[in-house]
Amino acid sequence: MWWWTIRVALSLVVSVGALGLTYWLWDGGRTWVGPVLLATAAGHLVTGAVMPTVRYRVHRWECTDLAVYELKGWLVREWRIIPISRIQSVDVARGPVQQLLGLATLRVVTAAHEGHVKIVGLDADVVARAAAELTALTQATPGDAT
Amino acid sequence: MTTVDVPEHTAPAPEPPGDEVPWQRLNGRLIWVNLARLVLSTLPTVLSMVFFGTGRHLSDLWPAMVATGIGMVISASDVLRWLRTRYRITDELVEIRTGRILRVYRQVPRERIRTVDHKAKLRHRLAGLRVVVISSGRSRAALRLDAVSKDRAEALRRELMRSAVQDGAGAAEQEGAGQDTVLARARWFWIFYNVINIWGMLIGGLLLWSLDGLLDLVNLDLIGPLDRLIDRLAPSRPVAWALWAAVVAFLGLCALTSGFVKDNWNFQLVRRVKEDGTALVTRQGLLSTREVHRDDRRLRGIHLSQPLFWRWIGLTETSVISTGLASWSLTSEPASVILPRGPAGEARRVAGLILPGPVRPLEEPLRRHPRAALYRRLLWAAVFCAAVCGLLAWLGATGVVPGWLWKVPLWGAPLPVLLAVVAYRTLGHTFAGRYLVMRRGVSRRETVALQREAVLGLKVRQTLVQRWLGLVSLGVPTAAGMRYYHAPDMTADQFVTFAGEAAPELLAEILRPAAERNSAGPGE
């Protein structure tokens, strides 16, 4: 949850900072930069207040012997299901913020780009264990439908 | 990674086992081809010097000299390429060393080879040569052998395609191989389907401009007399404009017609029985021929696409959904296209012949999507209009654009509404035999029939508005074709049925997320 909050905060700092700088330095553009600046700031504040909680409550994932399931989304709900037999590889990725918070991302890759499952913000130990289990399961199941 | 590019001086090329196989050169006739090209490339300069007498001023001559210079450089570098290219085929790999300046070593493991095609430009055909293109599962062609002799090309294709699957097996059934069944031929009236094109005017304009530039080289004026002629014929200014448009359109039409005839002359779609199964083969071309093989075991479905503006004459583009074939290409028709644009009935007939089994998935009646899908599209149309109005009103208020401009989208509002209705009427899906059939699209009506075995998973989406209207979008990623096909806006019941048909082995487990969704969505 804090991970999303931090990401919103970073995005707020970058975009509002850039727009604010434009507003301050470029006199001629103030008529239209002003409203855009206000809208961006307001949008980020609302997102920062609501989004992390909603996401934390909505996001679910599960690995069974048959498939990997994932439910995610805030404004757009998305369910993804990948049968174990279609998995091509399993990755674990950790960004700088995730390392700080002891989190990791589990990525399940299939032969189609749209078929990936990316489960973000999990406890690093859980991800490591899940990745090991999935790898073992995948190796035991033949075929990847390519 | 199936291909490895290693500049040789940075990393020595790995020498896998099989060193005894000798490296081979490309065909020596390439040298003669390039000599002929060299002579041809001096023609513009010589001609314009001798016959048209512009040689008096050296400055007038530069375009012809540039053309000659480019031709000479190309010929010389092609000879250099011939000198420095070697290739060999071992038991595991196809290897090539090439590169004019930078030495490049490239290899493809033989079991990764998906298709082997040959092409020929006019100069290749005159010399009896062929370009062999070897592609692996990636979207770009992996290796090009430009050029080898015709017989050698056919032998290479045979050898690589046979062993690409299994070794052995071939020799015994050799006599059964090479049998062709013609599935479709181009008809002459298909020209009309292929030359009506939005780009016709643009091509015509470019052609006129470049023709004018070319004739300018030899001191002939094209635009001037044409302009005077049109002025004399046309009584008023609008008529003159219309005449100009007609000239440009006519030129574009000529260019497109000749292009179509050149590319699709003697077009044939053939099912060829080979040693190890069957393949779909297209042969086409007047000056440069092109022959593309598509292995039937990699076939996953059929994709029909009908542009909105030409749907009333039933114009249809047909392509196969297949793994290991590029479905998008900038320079030429992608290899997945199996028919030129033609009538819908013909496309359906060919689709029925191509897909194995008695089912004709593309002729099955489709399940309609709920009324709510129409409401969602109408809502989008309204929001789009309102957004454009709002933006223009704001810009008008700040004085960037004229103040009356915000009313324009209101007058144009029927157009998005009409498109929304069109989009809704296009929606449909069904399940027939072992094929998922999905139809959608506004500017193009895309109908897809995809084998159930090719489905790599499920992706279900629901936006806030969809949740409110009780709609679900289902997407199926696959390894073939466009990699992702989806059927937007079905009801929850339709979704459960369709998903169960798409991935029956997951049905029991799918019902759990479905139930979760039912409890989560307030629209249920």
Task: Give structural notes.
The complex is a heterodimer of chains A (146) and B (524). By secondary structure, chain A is of the alpha+beta class. Chain A contains four helices and six strands; from the N terminus they run ααββββαββα. Chain A has a three-stranded antiparallel sheet. A three-stranded antiparallel sheet of chain A has the order 4-5-6. The relative contact order of chain A is 0.13. The model of chain A has no long low-confidence stretch (mean pLDDT 77). In chain B, the strands form four sheets. Chain B has a seven-stranded antiparallel sheet with strand order 7-6-5-11-10-9-8, sandwiched between helices. In chain B, α1 (29-50) runs antiparallel to α2 (62-84), α6 (200-217) packs across α8 and α14 packs antiparallel against α15. The model of chain B is unreliable at 1-18, 164-177 and 517-524 (pLDDT under 50).
Essential attributes:
heterodimer, A: alpha+beta, PH-domain like, three-stranded antiparallel beta sheet, 4 helices, B: 524 residues, alpha+beta, seven-stranded antiparallel beta sheet, 15 helices, globular, disordered C terminus
